[in-house]
Amino acid sequence: MAIKFQETQDYIPEMPARVFMLAMAATLCFMAGITAAGIIEGWWQVGIFAVVTAVCVFVCMFVKIRITVDDENLTVSVFKPYVVPLAHVIDVKKGDIDVTRNYSGWGIKKVKFRNYTAHGIEGAVTVKLAGRIVLTMTCIDRDALYDILYQYRRQD
Question: What does the domain layout of the chain look like in residue ranges?
Answer without folding.
Answer: 5-62, 79-151
